[in-house]
Amino acid sequence: MHTSLPDFDMPNEEQVHLAAESFRLLSDPTRIKILWALLQGESNVACLAELTGAASTAVSQHLAKLRLAGLVKGRREGTFVYYSAADEHVRRLLTQGLFHADHIDRDDLDHAPGLATVDEPAVG
Length: 124
Fold this sequence. Notes:
The chain is mainly alpha-helical. The longest helix is centred in the C-terminal third of the chain and has 15 residues.
């Protein structure tokens, strides 16, 4: 059915895998806070820990994963590393995710099968 549409196009396997990995890494609230802070300007681990309310060691681990995924980059200055968001794509991805979160119809979520709400666990 879809293949008969003239403009139908599926992403290739590598694109799907890399996008899924990025979304998986963004599924952690602390990582979203870290990225949001980095979109405002570069920062070090201690400052990010204070902003996110997480331990410095946890922030370091999150940053390492985000860096491996290409979502953040680091700049060394002496013994300090200053982190920033990797590029404008990260800004758009995070901004769209947060925009979508602001516009989710909570009533629909309460009745959607298989989706967890604040009060009940996911069914699956």
